[in-house]
Specification:
It is built from 8 helices and no strands. With 207 residues, the protein is mainly alpha-helical. The chain starts with a helix and ends with a helix.
Amino acid sequence: MDFNTFWDLLLEQVHRTSFLEWTAVGFGVSEVLLAKRNNIWLYPTGIISILCGGFLLIQSKLYAETLLHVYYLVMSIYGWANWNSRTASGAAVISKSNSKEQTITWTIALLGWGILYAFLVLFTDSDVPFLDAFVSSTAWAGMWLLAKRKLENWLWLNLSNLVAIPLLFYKGLFMFALLTIFLFVVAVLGYLDWKKEIETQVIYVES
């Protein structure tokens, strides 16, 4: 595919994008930028994006994808409450995941991958069930870690992004592929910012 063909397809997708889709994408981008800044407003922003996206998915009869959005909605509400919590079980500050949390994260990713793969193979006509399931399950793991305010959430979200980018290009969804590249870059910066914040906390405690 040459550049002119790519550009024409991209412009066609831009022109076909509805106001509701732009709203979902805009709030989705804002959510990631707010997460990078460790700002709790990422959650209400993300919830707006999820609700807009979920409505579009229902209209398109993509019910499995809608169920994924229900998971994102639940995790966003949980994360919002957890970030606000000042109890020992809350997530008032950024931290690294411990061994128990790492085990839970891997369980979410691997179990989710297997369940989604089986669902896509048995009940859908997906031609990329292995990769599609991987993208979603690793994003699930990342969302759980984000709700716990754990540094490693960025690693899991970008693992998802790394596979999603070529998959989206393969499917001809160029605008979403470019958006995911942008989110990948923001996630790298988010990881570095959060890592620096943890180091600052350690220096403050030691002093």
